[in-house]
Amino acid sequence: GAVVSQHPSRVICKSGTSVKIECRSLDFQATTMFWYRQFPKQSLMLMATSNEGSKATYEQGVEKDKFLINHASLTLSTLTVTSAHPEDSSFYICGIKRDIDGYTFGSGTRLTVV
Amino acid sequence: LAKTTQPISMDSYEGQEVNITCSHNNIATNDYITWYQQFPSQGPRFIIQGYKTKVTNEVASLFIPADRKSSTLSLPRVSLSDTAVYYCLVVPSGQAGTALIFGKGTTLSVSS
Fold it and tell me: What Cα–Cα distance (Å) separates residue A26 from each residue in A19, A29, A75, B65?
């Protein structure tokens, strides 16, 4: 399947600062990427769909001004958590879909806001 | 998207066969069924997918009855490393821009 690289794997930041998470599709040109958030003992929750060259589509309840998504190329989408607060601490996962073999996900980013 | 229902948790012992059943009563004609596995602090990993009857790969089998309102993931001879959360999802085919919507999944605990 497609290879998706997510960076960093874990990050600790101070409250009020911004953090950028990168998601790279290493062997597939992904016009669409998906961003999820997962809290402990819970399932993955879709945050937004990232579209190359256009605005992301956010799920209801997800603040687009807080979670900035940029999909500037077919191989890179970034999620920036702006003015992070402790409640933003979570596990963030990106994924892509390739028609041939379905969905592939990154290894996730553990964000801790202190 | 068709809603799925699966057990919250299951327990097993090493070497046993584990069957996880998922119900998806509202599955549409063009939908297929896919299963993912997730270990703690990792992204989900594809296990198997199918449309009808039986599909088998090197790690699992997927049984889908004729009415397709349910499916069963079968893991032969589980080991401790199979302890994970297993998600059953119903996905419309041919829609590249459609995200996977995850349910609660089944937490499988394998003991020695």
Answer: 22, 8, 7, 37
Tens digit of each residue's pLDDT (9 = 90 or more) over A70-101: 998 999 999 999 999 999 999 999 999 876 65
Is the link from the previous residue into A8 a cis peptide, with omega within 30 of 0? yes
Closest alpha carbon to A19 in A101, A102, A89, A99 = A89
Q: Are strands A90-98 and A32-38 parallel, antiparallel or unpaired?
A: antiparallel
CA nearest B110: which of B33, B25, B37, B36?
Answer: B37
Using a CB-CB cut-off of 8 Å, the residues of chain B touching A108 are: 41-43
Q: What is the pLDDT of residues B73-84, one digit of tens each?
A: 999 999 999 999
Task: With residue A48 as reference, give the H or E element that holds it.
Answer: strand A45-51
- The verdict on a CB contact (< 8 Å) between B101 and A46 is yes
Distance CA A104, CA B90 (A): 16
- Residues of chain A with C-beta less than 8 angstroms from the C-beta of B96: 31-32, 97, 99
Q: Is the per-residue pLDDT at B104 higher than 70?
A: yes
- The alpha carbon of B76 is separated from its chain's Cα centroid by a whole number of angstroms, namely 14
